[in-house]
Amino acid sequence: MITLIAAAAENNALGKDNQLVWHLPNDFKRFKQITSGHYIIMGRKTFESFPKPLPNRTHIIITRQKNYHYEGCLVANSIEKAVELAPKDEEIFIIGGAEIYNQSIDFADKIELTRVHSSFEADAFFPEINPNQWNLIFEEHHQKDEKHNFDFTFQTFVKK
Question: I need a surface site. Which of 6, 18, 79, 158 has the fewest CB within 10 A?
């Protein structure tokens, strides 16, 4: 099972200058809960935006750089090779960035999306979710509050 997991704004914005443009603690908690103990696949720039590797996950980094190495992480030069590095019976999570989401949405089985109910200026965008290809099976709305500056909705889509 291949799952894309992301937080995207109403205009599909993911981030700007390799950074998120919002801070939603409950989204981080959900991301950690869903991905802990699993293989996570990401592009090099996404990986390098973290202060250090995320605990309790096996990182697979996609890069075109020859000889790229990071202690404790697996490295691949394509999304296909990255998927091959993970065990076949595992749920694999693709965590970004935009280019990696675009390359993998057509063969993904599920999307775990946090829809941030605002639009942002961005330079990275999540691909459009085609309603002819995906069914929304779960939705949980959250109002903005003292810790969350924007309304947001957790959504789960499965491939039709």
Answer: 18
Identify the burial level of 56 via C-beta atoms within 10 angstroms of its C-beta, where 0-12 means exposed, 13-18 middle and 19 or more buried. Answer: exposed
Q: What pTM does this model have?
A: 0.96
The answer to whether the beta carbons of residues 62 and 77 sit under 8 Å apart is: yes
Q: What confidence tier does 143 reach under pLDDT thresholds 50, 70, 90?
A: very high
Closest CA to 117 of 145, 156, 152, 155: 152
Q: Quick count: other Cβ atoms within 10 Å of Cβ 42?
A: 24
Among 59, 54, 51, 40, CA closest to 2: 40
Distances (CA, A) of 91 to 85, 104, 109, 119: 12, 14, 10, 31
Q: Is the peptide bond before 97 cis (omega within 30 degrees of 0)?
A: yes
Nearest-CA neighbor of 17 among 60, 48, 40?
48
pLDDT of residue 32: 97
Strand-by-strand arrangement of the 134-142 sheet: 74-76, 58-62, 39-43, 92-94, 2-9, 110-116, 152-159, 134-142
Task: Give the pLDDT band of residue 11 (cuts 50, 70, 90).
Answer: very high
